[in-house]
């Protein structure tokens, strides 16, 4: 059975729970006696390969890299005012994790904006730093792929935007 392929070998894609990956190949495996066509997506940073059935790609949230306009929206979000809700940290942490795992660059930018601490403010807790770092890495990977720069430069650029917004 042949399906309409949305992605080709070599395409960069975003898988919500893992961020930016690259389609390394198309494979056919026999599972439960049925032939299943899969995308083999490699995530260099995690040193892993995800095999995703082609028929489930859309439902799993697999998408192309963000457009330049979507990245601009994310950068604008970084410049906005922090909106930290006064709820228990555990609840906010869950919400931040959900935003990061949504794969949406604007949602990830909201996490960065809300957890960013100017130099004159108190130190972040360990868990705040962990979530901030996860959001920074996730958004930097997509920015790097969209703008064809390395991740370090992308992360520096994001932090410069945050610092200017202080």
Describe the structure using short key phrases.
166 residues, alpha+beta, Thrombin, subunit H, Methane Monooxygenase Hydroxylase, Chain G, domain 1, 2 domains, five-stranded antiparallel β-sheet, 5 helices, 5 strands, elongated
Task: Describe this entry's structure for a reader.
This protein is an alpha+beta fold. It has two domains: 12-64, Thrombin, subunit H, CATH 2.40.10; 68-164, Up-down Bundle (Methane Monooxygenase Hydroxylase, Chain G, domain 1). Helices cover 44% and strands 21% of the residues. It contains five helices and five strands. β3 (34-43) and β4 (48-53) form a beta hairpin. The longest helix has 22 residues, at 126-147.
How would you concisely characterize the structure shown here?
The protein is of the alpha+beta class and about 170 residues long.
Radius of gyration over C-alpha positions, nearest whole angstrom: 18 Å
Task: Report the sheet with the most strands, covering strand number, pairing sense and barrel closure.
Answer: 5 strands, antiparallel
CATH topology of the largest domain: Methane Monooxygenase Hydroxylase, Chain G, domain 1
What is the percent of helical residues?
Answer: 40-55%
Q: Count of helices?
A: 5
CATH architecture group name of the largest domain: Up-down Bundle
Number of strands: 5
Oligomer: single chain
- Level-1 CATH class name of the largest domain: Mainly Alpha
Unreliably modeled segments: none
Biggest β-sheet: strands ordered side by side in the sheet: 4-3-2-1-5
Query: How would you describe the shape?
Result: elongated
Mean pLDDT: 90
| End-to-end distance | 55 Å
Provide the CATH superfamily of the largest domain: CarD-like, C-terminal domain
Please give the domain count. 2
Strand content: 15-25%
Give the class from helix and strand content and strand pairing: alpha+beta
What letter string, H or E per element, gives the SSE order? EEEEEHHHHH
């Amino acid at each position: 059975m042949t399906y309409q392929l949305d992605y080709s070998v070599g395409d960069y894609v975003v898988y919500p729970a893992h961020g930016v990956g690259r389609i390394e190949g198309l494979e056919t495996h026999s599972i439960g006696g049925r032939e299943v066509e899969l995308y083999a997506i490699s995530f260099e940073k995690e040193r892993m390969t995800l095999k995703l059935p082609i028929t489930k790609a859309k439902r799993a949230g697999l998408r192309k890299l963000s457009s330049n306009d979507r990245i601009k929206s994310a950068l604008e979000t970084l410049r906005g005012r922090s909106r930290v809700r006064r709820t228990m940290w555990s609840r906010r942490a869950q919400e931040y994790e959900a935003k990061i795992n949504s794969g949406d660059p604007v949602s990830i930018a909201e996490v960065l904006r809300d957890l960013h601490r100017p130099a004159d403010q108190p130190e972040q807790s360990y868990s705040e730093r962990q979530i901030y770092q996860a959001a920074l890495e996730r958004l930097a990977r997509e920015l790097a792929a969209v703008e064809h720069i390395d991740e370090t430069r992308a992360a520096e650029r994001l932090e410069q935007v945050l610092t200017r917004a202080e």
